[in-house]
Structure formats: structure tokens, C-alpha cells
Amino acid sequence: MAGSAVVRRLDLGYFVRPAVETGTGLPRVEPVLAYLVRHAAGLLLFDTGIGTGDPEAEAHYRPRRRDLRAALADAGAAPEDVRLVVNCHLHFDHCGGNPAFAGRPVLVQRAELAAARAGGHTIDALVDHPGARYEELDGEAEVWPGVTVVPTPGHTDGHQSLVVSGPAGTTVLAGQARDFASEFASDEMARRAGLHTPGTDRPPHPAWLDRLADFAPGRVLFAHDRSVWEGAMPPGGGAPRTGEGPARRPR
Length: 251
Prior knowledge:
The protein has helices at residues 19-22, 55-61, 68-74, 110-117, 181-196, 208-213; strands at 6-17, 28-39, 42-46, 64-65, 82-86, 105-109, 133-137, 141-144, 147-151, 160-166, 169-173, 219-221, 228-230, 247-248. By secondary structure, the protein is an alpha/beta fold.
């Protein structure tokens, strides 16, 4: 079954990040993207969209939601067909549709679930909703053949990404490990510079990037950016491969 997976992006709406959070002095509209993985073992959904239930968050982010059932239908699926859910983290714009999957296992890092249950992290009703069934992970785990959860802390301590091997190569669903493909590209170039000239002064990169490179993914997809990073990541210690991995806009 390894190498049999196909990834389909789902557009679940957008929100407006206020100027105080963008670092630019201007507000920014950000998409909310989930990913449906078709695998011989079944359907896996990575993230579930924007949750409801917090008037303060509603006023602050002004979200516009796309119905999750409609998005799945466009991909030829229904919530009932999804066998496994993986959340990159439990902020309300990533786990908002989780209640639609009551009884289905939801994979999350133990540290992330603990933070969510401590309060002040997300919309509490989205965490321990009726029928919630978490499978807590402590680090990396191959959940299906060719489908591996990899911790990518930073945005939250318990953030995780998903590595998927498919017929077109390996894809990383990076969630909010980085907000933009261009940020990921900058980190990856810093990592590559270290392969050429170890020990020289260069920008740092997150340690988890070395682990992702072990899978040599050909593309990386994000939760809040429709741009896609492309260009195989050379494994640590190896010679860089062709292609510098620029961000691009898909057709």
C-alpha cells in the first residue's frame, strides 16, 4: 500500500488576520486549507476547517467558512467516508470540523492536546466534544504505510505535519509549520547552505527540517497559503538536488 496515496486540497474558507498580528501594519486575508488523502487503507483528512462558538474570535478574525460536507462532496467523499483525522494543531481554524467525525480517531501530539485542554488555546467546545476520540502521539509515527506524522513544533509546541508518499512522489502537508511557502523556502535554502559550507555563518533553520529532508519530498503544502513549495529536498549530508524549491501558484 505504500506509495498509493493521492492528496486533494480542500478550500474551507478564509479569515482576516488583523494588522496587529501581521507584522506589516496591514490586515491580511488568509485561506483555510485542509487536505484529503486517498490511500489503500481508506480516507484521511488533514485538518477540518474553521470552528464556531466564540464571539470574540468571530469579531477578531471575521471568518468566512465553506461547508466541510460540501468541500468533501466536491472531492467525491462525505464525512462518513473518512476513516482517520489528523490535526496539525488544535487552534479553532484547524479543528473546527472535528465534531463531524465523532467516534473516528483523531491523531494529535500529546503536548498539543494538553495545551488545548489547559484553556486559552482554542475554542474549548471543539476539543472534548461529544464522541471525541483522540489518539495521542509522542513524536513521530507511521500511521499507514507511506503516511507518517512528523512533529514540527514552533507555531505551537505540539504542531505536527504529515508526510505522504504517492504515485507522483512524496508530499508534506505542513499545516502551519510555516505560514507561507516563501518562509519554508528560505529555511530550506539555509539548510542547503549548511550542506555546502558547514560551520559558516548563516540563518538558522528549524531542526525538524532535517527530518523532513530524510523523506526527500518533492512538494510541501500549507494550511494558510495556496502557494506550493516544489523541488526535492536533499537529505542531510547529501549533495543538493536540482531545483531550488521556489514557491509557485498552482494552476
